[in-house]
Design a protein that fits this description.
The protein is built from 13 helices and 16 strands. The strands form 2 sheets. Strands 1, 2, 3, 4, 5, 6, 7, 8 and 9 form a 9-stranded mixed sheet that branches. It has a 7-stranded mixed sheet with strand order 14-13-10-11-12-15-16, sandwiched between helices. One of its GO terms (molecular function) is tRNA-uracil-4 sulfurtransferase activity.
Length: 400
């Protein structure tokens, strides 16, 4: 015998009423995305859950991939047998042998297929008695707090037997809450913020500003690698590279150093706003944390936010750096984030940045930056990639 299925249970999406079908389809699509490395594995919707058929594939890497998918409340490794009592008994016995340290157990039969002739209570008794006899005193029944709960789920297509429940990523399926344009810097914070948004159902498109030759190809590859890490949580991610060298050198030349960071951030947000509107995206996000640096004070955020009417989401706003670092390590982005390749935010970094920049002063300095021309040129030079878990390729259609 071999565990040949994984039963996936829904999380919050089960509470979505009339939209449940839509959420289920999104979750199924996201599950199929993370299972692409396993060509024999199939996933399908059936009887109020998603069933993953392993088809002789090792269950451990498949279960590990499923554990990352938002929208999954829990999952169980399952053995499928025919709707025959003897097969159920032997199946339950096999599942218990996978828990050698267990001292107590119970059988919980669910006869969803009402044409099966043995009712649930009788199944509990018949299967439990068979297991007790096989273990000859090594196991005891505990119906209240068993070490192992053997669930026997009788369906028309067959009986699924499980003996353990594993926690999923919970949250909402990626894509169920709409799209967000996320500013991905290449540091520790922004990938964590993107992951948090994905957990609330947001489909993120990434926007990265790069400044060659001050930032090199390794810095660009680092951002691609971070984006690829995030695809394991649900789906392919579109990544946009905005050429920012000309804007950045122009700001450095024309703007007082105390306002350089503010004007640079305002230009980034201007460009992000235009890209988001072009693509029908309803919010912009980033990895800012309140008070972490000069550009992340409330006064700075207020002055920078002037460049858009779209919501600017900041999932890390109240998180400290240690918490963010621990989060990055948990989701697997930390080691890539700390690679020593500069991004555009570290170039020409002034030491006297204003922590309370004024809107009127910012607008005054922007008169010398040729804002409209520079924004148009940057957007015209965007390079867009579709990043998957396996490879990266240019988008087929011209996006801008």
């Amino acid at each position: 015998m071999k565990m040949d299925h994984i039963l996936v249970r829904y999380g919050e999406l089960a509470l979505k009423g009339k939209n449940r079908g839509h959420f289920e389809k999104l979750l199924l699509a996201n599950i199929r995305h993370v299972l692409k490395p396993f060509p024999k594995v199939q996933a399908k919707r059936t009887f109020g859950r998603i069933v993953v058929e392993l088809n002789s594939t090792d269950h451990e890497p498949v279960a590990a991939a499923l554990a990352n998918v938002f929208g999954i409340q829990s999952y169980s490794l399952a053995l499928r047998v025919e709707n025959e009592l003897e097969a159920m008994q032997k199946g339950a016995l096999f599942m218990l042998t996978q828990h050698p340290d267990a001292k107590t157990f119970k059988v919980s039969a669910r006869r969803a297929y009402k044409l099966f002739p043995i009712d649930s209570q009788s199944l509990n008794h018949k299967i439990g008695s068979y297991v007790l006899k096989a273990f000859t005193g090594e196991l005891a029944v505990d119906v209240h707090h068993p070490d192992v709960n053997v669930v026997v789920d009788v369906r028309e297509s067959g009986t699924y037997i499980t003996a353990g429940v594993y926690a999923g990523a919970k949250g909402l399926p990626v894509g169920s809450s709409g799209k967000v344009l996320h500013l991905l810097s290449g540091g520790i914070d922004s990938p964590v913020a993107a992951h948090m948004l994905m957990g609330r159902g947001a489909e993120v498109e990434m926007l990265h500003f790069h400044s060659p030759p001050y930032t090199n190809e390794r810095a660009k590859q680092k951002v691609i690698d971070l984006t690829r890490e995030l695809t394991k949580f649900g789906r392919t991610i579109t990544l946009h590279f905005v050429p920012f060298t000309d804007i950045q050198t122009h700001i450095h030349k024309e703007v007082p150093s105390s306002y350089e960071m503010t004007i640079m951030r305002r230009m980034m947000l201007r460009i992000a706003d235009r890209i988001a509107r072009e693509r029908g995206i309803l919010a912009i996000s980033n990895g800012e944390s309140l008070g972490q640096v000069a550009s992340q004070t409330l006064a700075s955020m207020n002055t920078i936010n002037e460049m858009t009417n779209l919501p600017v989401l900041r999932p890390l706003l109240a998180m400290d750096k240690e918490t963010t670092i621990a989060y990055a390590k948990r989701i697997g982005t930390y080691e890539t984030s700390i690679l020593p390749y500069e991004d555009c935010c570290t170039i020409f970094l002034p030491t006297d940045s204003k922590t309370k920049p004024k809107r009127d002063r910012s607008a005054h300095f922007e008169q010398y930056v040729q804002v409209e021309e520079k924004c148009r040129e940057a957007i015209a030079g965007i390079e867009s990639l579709e990043v998957t878990g396996a490879h990266t390729s240019p988008t087929l259609d011209q996006l801008f």
